[in-house]
């Protein structure tokens, strides 16, 4: 019963934080007139969720959420826009190529092959993009280092990559099934899942729940056996 109560409280905290981050995301995106405010707000989502996950006391008030979010947003006005718009343009180009491949007769097996390759390229690219914002939120490094690290994470952590893809598909299904969830929590839900999955499975130095468990000697016996 105690374990259930602790789990229930944890779920409620997650819902509370996600809701408040979504409200902050909408407000700050509008503050930046969407074009200027969107990508700094996305960067602030990553920064806020990261800060909350590694905080020992996760019973945040709405004031704490907004304080962390607003500070991150202010710091990201310039850099996040450059980073985000470059990614968006590249992603739009790849999506357009995929659209053309599916709506033009390229001829039998060749058309199917080209379409399939472009689909894989698009999926891998957006997986890389999602991971890159998490890497960027955790490390204060130059863009090319972040790009290399993000590509490495996509390849070297296949379980993490697969889980992120499955979570995104599940999120889209939930949005279609229950549109109210999207209206209430917005894009924060999939981004929260992405960041939490990276925290749990990517084994990033300084941002890994497994490393924290090992340091606190609360590791599961199966982990002890592997060491």
UniProtKB/TrEMBL annotation:
The species this protein was found in: Alloscardovia theropitheci
Stretches that traverse the bilayer: 21-46, 110-135, 155-175, 181-202
The name this protein goes by in its record: DUF624 domain-containing protein
Keyword Membrane: yes
Keywords assigned: Membrane, Transmembrane, Transmembrane helix
Pfam families listed in its UniProt record: DUF624 (PF04854)
